[in-house]
# Entry
Amino acid sequence: MGEPKPPVPAGEERVTIESEHLAAIVRSSDDAILSKDRNATITSWNEAAERLYGYTSEEVVGQSVAILIPPDRQGEELEIVRRILAGERVEHYATERVRKDGTRVAVSLTASPIHGAGGEIVGVSTQARDISAAQQSEQQMAGAFEGAPIGIAVFSIEPGSFGRLHQVNAEMTRLLGYTQEELAAVSPGELTHPDDAELERVLIEELAAGRRSSYGIEKRNRHKDGRWVWVWLTVSLLGIDDPPRSAVAHMFDISYRKSAESELKQVRTNLERSNAELDQFAYVASHDLKEPLIILSAYARMLGERHGDALDEEGRTFLGHVRDEAGRMKAMIDDLLDYSRLQTRAEDTQTVELANVLDLALKTLAPRLEETQARVDVEGRLPSVEGSPAQFERLFRNLISNALKFRGQDAPVISVSAEHAGGEWIVSVRDNGIGIDPAKAGRIFDVFQRLHSQEEYAGTGMGLAICKRIVERHGGRIWVEPAAGGGSAFRFALQD
Ligand code: ADP
# Structure
């Protein structure tokens, strides 16, 4: 059992207590509360009214309520009183009032009748709430909504359909080509491209079922003029209704990006096709050139063997040149054939331990390494990369055989190392050879480009072009730098 209840006051005493309670509530209310008689003369005024309008109770009680009403709204108060006298309700009536200092304030008014002892209406009490802050933020939100550079629409979620658009901003009407009124009458589904409709239908269904709260897709919408416009659309649920009832769509025009993408795709396809055609051409041309060359070499050989005696010294020298040049041309054609065959198809790709393919290259080059008394140092660990083992072996073979060919006075010292930087592996092959003039270093990776004559150093000028192609086919890049202490450092970078 709790405390015994205090005795319930009765009669006049009770009425007095209740009126005092009510008066206290009115006094401390946050809303400005004033009462006026049937002639619109102010009869009471609480503290919040003083704060809102700036007049003290002494200043206004006995005055006409007209002092609070802007000149352009004078008729309004009479109308409110008339409605109350007629028994109507006046609630949340948004209007403006004037403060003592002459400034205007946006208010929401709720008026109710004051009854006399006999039940007749003797006056009206008005509650006013300052709504200027709310109104200002509403205006700001409306401005942000209308002026947003992306299309915004609020729509209802209706199971089994794409819903209905309720509120759309200016950019949305521009994107779709319809006025706000027209859009209210169409279902967004009617504007969706048939190829995108199924995906979006499923997403909206998931949204309606509460299985997701938002989605984002690229889709096509039909503009009023009939063209399809690519947009990026995000849709998010609004409110906390269960099941969900409304959502907001944000739409962004991506047609420019889409057309740039498809142009790029087209350019890429054309480029790939023309590259493939070029490779095919190089392959066919070198293949077909080889046959007459083999015959030419064979006749030159037979000429020397069978009729060499009939030639004088000069004739035999010329014949020697013919055979040498035919041999050189054959080497060039073979390299060109190799070059045109270099493709990295997905099925060739595997994990390649660079240390292993380097070993293989060194084994192939063993006789020349011995002959030149070369030393090859591998500094640190070489990484493993994705690609074609045969091609990486070829890459090392070409670089190291160049280091042997273009050696200086001293026996060749070649060092191979790798470092990891910026998400890629940079592999270096350094030598102590004759070095490369940095001004000419750019072109040595081009097909048939050489910096020396045949007499100085024999070669086809294809070795580094093949290296470049191998590295680029693996998504990397290759370059040369002068090595510290003379010589050259060839470097290639591959994505980790
Ligand atoms: P080739 O060796 O048949 O001439 P490459 O394409 O391998 O063709 O090389 C092109 C040119 O680059 C060479 O002729 C040479 O002038 C220069 N070069 C290549 N490697 C080196 C090197 N390690 N040191 C100095 N020069 C080099």
